Each structure stands twice: as structure tokens, then as C-alpha cells.
Amino acid sequence: LEKEAEHEISKVATLSSYKVIDRAYGSSRPIGPSSKNILIVAIILGLVFGTIFAFILDFLDSKIKTIDEIEKQVDIPIYGVVPFVKNRKVQLELYNSPNSPFTESYRKLRINLQLEAEEKIVILITSTVDGEGKNLTTANLSAIFEMANYKTIAIDLDMRRPTLDKLFSIEDATTGISSYLTGESNLDDIIYQTKHDNLSIIPVGDIPSNPSEIILSSRLPEMIDRLREHYDYIIINSVPLEVATDSKHIMRFSDINLVLFRENYSKKSSLLALDSLLNQKKFNTMGIVFMEKIGV
User: Fold this and answer.
1) Of 22, 45, 61, which residue constitutes the final position of a domain?
2) What is the pTM of this model?
3) Higher confidence at residue 56 or residue 163?
4) For residue 235, what are the contacts with CB-CB under 8 A and spacing of at least 6?
5) Backbone angles phi, psi at 154, to 5 degrees
6) Could you give the strand order of the β-sheet that contains 233-237, starting from the edge strand earlier in sequence?
7) Which CATH number belongs to the domain containing residue 185 in this structure?
8) Would you tell me how many other CB atoms lie within 10 Å of the CB of residue 48?
């Protein structure tokens, strides 16, 4: 009896106070995370972080991509937009395709320059650094004036990297502006007639060892004054502004100074440097030509 009583006491002690309200049931669909919700969140996060990343890249990008960027930074007139020709075999394209969009872009540039002032006939072309297209721009701008029957002369004053004699197929141009500035040659000796009736050039000639010094010769402004009497337009090809100080000296003798900025190549900091140069008020009219990227 005693053991039976202990057994009954043990059963009572192990009874739970909980009771079953409803029995568990299963589901044929998963109750874990929703793939649809995950996808929506991922898309939203991707857009947010993608926008932030793109903004950071744009902020860090130092290159000029559009004309709007130029107009926002500096108050310097843009005289034209011409194609940047990467293929060196495509040189004086104006004569090969007189009715092409390429040629038409130079006609617009010519008109804009003429509207500035009819008496301004000395035009200097430079860039901020090498590779922005100033050599071909000088050659093609000279050609577009010649095509309109203006008596034109192009002067190569980039005595570090001469190119105009090659672009106009002038052979054995050993006598040029370098020997004239040092007093070794006369003006008539350094003027070369191209195959185009109204277009002559003055090449560099022998490359000097001290271009920054001989450019200071008093014979330079004297030469320009003499050429004004015989030519409708004088186009000067000058050294890039950030390569040497030559252009800053030559700019004092020109009527219009054009600085080239190449799309997705030239730096925004160069715009600020140009604006600072303009504020010195030591030069005549300053302008910009935007070199647009094309597939040529």
C-alpha cells in the first residue's frame, strides 16, 4: 500500500498545467524570407549606391566633357566647335571634302572670327597642353580663309615641334622663322608658297636650341607689322600654354587669341588658369575653340 501511494504521488507531481488548445498544422509554401522583397530592396539599394558612386566619379573627373562646363567656369567667348581629328592621315580635309560637316564647322568658325571685328587679322592659335589639335586647326583655319579668296599666311611659331611644313608638303624648309629672328635670314627668304594660290606659310626651319629666348627678338613684332600690309589674315601656330611661356609673349602682338580645349582630354583646371591669364588684361581678345570628339 505504501508503494502504491508513492506511485500516485509521483504521477500527480509530473502532470503539466498546460493544455492543448489547437493542434499544429503544416503549409505547402515556405514561410522563410520573401525573395520578392529581397529583390525590391536590392534594386533600391543598387540605385542609391550607384547614384552616389556616379556622383563621386563625376566629382573626381578632372576632364572637360561639354561646352556647358566651359561656360559655367569662365566668361570667355566660344568661337566655334570643330571636330578633333585623331587620324593623322586626315589632314587638310577641307580641300578633299569642301561640302562636308567637317568643312562647314570651319566655315562657322571663320564667320564668327570675322564678326568679332573686320580689322582683326592676326589670329593666334594655341592650346593648354600637347595633343589638343592646334597644328591641324591652324592648317585648316588657314585653308578655310584661303578658300574664300583671302590672302592668308600661316606662321609656325611652335619651334619645339614644327608641323606646318609637313602639313602643307613643303620640302627642304631649312630656312624659316628661327633664322629670321636671329637675323640670319630676310623676310622674303622664309615665305613659302603652298600649292594653293592664296596661301603661304612661314615654317620653323632649323629647330633652335633656345626658342624661348629668340622669340623675344624685336624682329617678331616688326615682321607681323610688315605682313599686315600684304595679307588679309595671319594665322599663328604657337606652343601650348602649359609647355612654355612663348605664347604669352606672342599674344601681345595678335588681335585674337584662340585657345583649344579638347573634349574628354583637356583639364578643368586649365580653364581656371586661362581665366586668370585673361584677368591680367595684358592681351587682346581671348576666345575658345572646342574640339569635339569624332570617329575620324
Assistant:
1) 61
2) 0.78
3) 163
4) 123, 125, 138, 141, 142, 145, 152, 153, 154, 155
5) -105, 130
6) 78-84, 285-293, 256-262, 122-127, 233-237, 152-156, 199-202, 192-193
7) 3.40.50.300
8) 10
